[in-house]
Write a structure and sequence with these properties.
mainly alpha, about 0% strand
């Protein structure tokens, strides 16, 4: 089975070129949507502004269920931006001739590292170094020698979990789409494409939810146990 056909692949088949062009395309679409939403703000939103406000309201409500509305609002810019970026990156791959940047491990690993570094930074900044790493030792002091290395491994494994979950699902969707187009190149079945669209949104939702969960666990230590 050959590689997916892409329009950018007509210029170069280099892995880095394909990845960078599709990632920059996703980023450009996100910036364009943001500019369209902000270009003519109205008290009663319409068009793109209405869609973006509904999206931000949904992300805020999701975060409020995890860490409270005040804390969720604090981290809304980060989580909403990641969700929009991942969502657009996923959706690009559904269009024949394009490939999802999130189907490249470079993309998902970079996002996972950003989330990992940021939530640990916020945990240390909000609680202090001692208090933050103390919660790695668990609620029972005499099990600290066992809990601390387990917690360290658990936190590091989040990088693998975040990156490989998104990469694996989107890559699998791309392979499914390639087989689909090989079997029916002129007749595009609507049900599989609708399923791929749903999966694109679902993976973005999961990434946002896990980001909120990790941030909540890092900054709200007094509620953890």
């Amino acid at each position: 089975m050959g590689d997916l056909f892409t329009f950018f692949g007509l210029v170069s088949h280099d892995h880095a070129f394909i990845f960078m062009t599709h990632m920059l395309l996703a980023a450009a679409i996100v910036l364009l949507l943001a500019k369209m939403a902000m270009s003519s703000l109205r008290v009663v939103p319409t068009g793109v502004q209405n869609v973006m406000e509904a999206y931000l309201g949904g992300v805020l409500a999701m975060g409020a269920d995890v860490m409270g509305k005040e804390e969720a609002r604090r981290y809304l810019p980060l989580v909403a931006t990641i969700g929009l970026f991942v969502g657009i990156a996923n959706l690009i791959g559904i269009i024949p001739g394009f490939e999802s940047p999130s189907a490249f491990l470079d993309f998902t690993l970079a996002l996972a590292l950003v989330v990992f570094v940021y939530y640990n930074y916020e945990g240390i900044r909000r609680n202090g170094v001692i208090a933050y790493f103390k919660h790695f030792m668990g609620p029972v002091w005499w099990l600290a020698w066992l809990m601390f290395p387990i917690e360290i491994v658990s936190h590091i494994s989040r990088i693998i979990s975040l990156s490989f979950r998104l990469f694996g699902n989107v890559k699998g969707d791309d392979m499914f789409l390639m087989v689909l187009l090989m079997l029916a190149p002129w007749l595009l079945p609507m049900i599989p494409f609708a399923l791929l669209t749903f999966m694109a949104f679902l993976q973005a939702f999961i990434f946002m939810m896990l980001t909120y969960v990790y941030l909540g666990g890092a900054v709200l230590l007094h509620d953890e146990h």
